[in-house]
UniProtKB/TrEMBL annotation:
This is O-antigen ligase-related domain-containing protein. Keywords: Membrane, Transmembrane, Transmembrane helix. The keyword GTP-binding does not apply. Residues 191-364 form the O-antigen ligase-related domain. The keyword Membrane applies. It is a multi-pass membrane protein.
Length: 435
């Protein structure tokens, strides 16, 4: 299949624009979505598009959204429910706009290149900005974690989520333009920029996953052809080993992020009453405490089958924090706790508490269906990597509760489903990947 008409090219370019804009401020994403909608309308052929929409990979997203919409009617806080529903419109809009279009291998590569370009420009901007601030005030913390991306809407964790996928693409996708073998110097310069940016963002889980992925990929290539890949893998091992040694034996914020795990006091999380105890909230014990409160609410309020409603979750969480005596939830405290209105930081628990087991089943299907369907795709490495990273990342973040996660994850999820269905129906040659 070849997308040659100007309407098809306009549609693909609109998809490229969204991919490029993902790491930029959120309002640009909204503008790019409207441009995509216009390109979709101009493309026409609506009868065929309706037929393409009736696929499990798309319908499960729409049902997931419908359950959130239904929870409006039993949520007491209608205002918050409306805000949440509006933020999740992408669950329906992208299956309609992206899922019903046509994306061939050439278009898929253009979209990937656009995404890498967008993340690379953001990386370059953030690093230059950090150097500017460092020269101004001498504070090296400007180069790390949330401070590095403080000028943007997405925080360091979500920016790492984008960057790790861009790095995966370099390793796992065989590009036929821009990042080709003939342009090795350019390709690896961009890869190095993204890798430095990714490390500076200091997301513990994703750094671990990327190192693990590199190790598994190296082992695979080594078994495939030891003579051909031994030298390259040895060089990679030396580079990674040197970097890890520097991180391990020097004082730096990245090392401190991992040491927090060893120093964490998890006993504090399970106290029955915090009102008469010194309570120090940090990045490590906050999540378990939030999860504990969510689980207690689910059990005590019997939220298993329909949840509390998407509008009331913050209210019942805040109420439970108040009951536990956590500082910052009483007016007389004189300050507001950072836990006030905070997301659950676990998309599985977040879904269960908001819309119950039916919603959790939908989320699990969204994440699990690709592993059954993608067997029809010959080279499926990059698809598996995207899904596996998303599954693990959702254990520590409420990815589908923020625009930083919604647009990115839904966009690529629907993009892959589109390519899969097109390939299966038209028996198109699978996209080439190295794994």
């Amino acid at each position: 299949m070849s997308l040659n008409s100007w309407r098809d090219k306009l549609f693909v370019n609109a998809l490229c624009l969204i991919a490029f804009i993902i790491p930029f401020p959120f309002y640009l994403g909204a503008i790019s979505a409207w441009i995509l909608a216009l390109a979709w309308l101009i493309q026409g052929n609506f009868a065929a598009k309706i037929q393409r929409l009736l696929k499990p990979g798309y319908l499960v997203w729409i049902v997931y959204f419908a359950l959130f919409g239904l929870s409006y009617f039993y949520s007491d806080n209608k205002k918050e429910s409306t805000v949440d529903i509006v933020s999740k419109l992408t669950f329906v809009i992208f299956p309609i706009l992206i899922g019903t279009g046509e994306i061939d291998r050439k278009a898929l590569e253009k979209i990937f290149i656009s995404f890498i370009t967008g993340v690379s420009l953001i990386a370059l901007f953030c690093i230059i900005h950090a150097f500017y601030l460092f020269n101004k005030n001498g504070d090296a913390s400007q180069f790390f974690y949330h401070t590095l991306v403080s000028m943007l809407d997405a925080n360091a964790v979500y920016m790492s989520f984008y960057t790790i996928f861009a790095l995966y693409l370099f390793v796992s996708f065989r590009f036929t333009s821009v990042f080709t073998k003939k342009r090795k110097a350019f390709k690896w310069s961009v890869f190095s920029l993204l890798l430095v940016f990714f490390i500076l963002l200091s997301c513990r889980l994703l750094i671990f996953l990327f190192v693990l992925y590199l190790g598994l990929t190296a082992v695979k290539f080594l078994f495939r052809n030891p003579k051909k890949y031994l030298l390259k893998i040895s060089i990679l091992a030396v580079v990674v080993g040197t970097f890890c040694s520097i991180i391990l034996f020097t004082k730096n914020p990245i090392k401190e992020r991992y040491l927090l795990v060893a120093r964490g006091n998890m006993d504090l999380v399970f106290q029955k009453d915090f009102s008469h105890k010194e309570f120090v909230l940090d990045n490590l014990n906050a999540r378990p405490l939030i999860w504990r409160v969510a689980i207690e609410n689910i059990v005590e309020k019997n939220l298993w089958w329909k949840g509390c409603g998407n509008g009331d979750i913050n209210d019942i969480q805040n109420e439970k924090y108040l009951q536990l005596g956590i500082p910052g939830f009483k007016k007389e405290d004189g300050f507001q706790s950072p836990l006030y209105n905070i997301a659950i930081h676990n998309m599985y628990l977040q879904t269960l508490e908001m819309i119950g087991i039916p919603g959790l089943i939908c989320l699990i299907l969204i994440l699990a269906l690709p592993f059954f369907s993608i067997r029809y795709v010959k080279n499926k490495g990059i698809f598996y990597i995207f899904q596996c990273t998303g599954i693990l990342f959702m254990m520590q973040e409420s990815v589908l509760q923020t625009q930083a996660g919604i647009v990115y994850f839904v966009f690529f999820s629907i993009l892959f489903w589109n390519y899969y269905y097109l390939q299966k129906n038209n028996k198109e040659t699978p996209f080439d990947a190295t794994v």
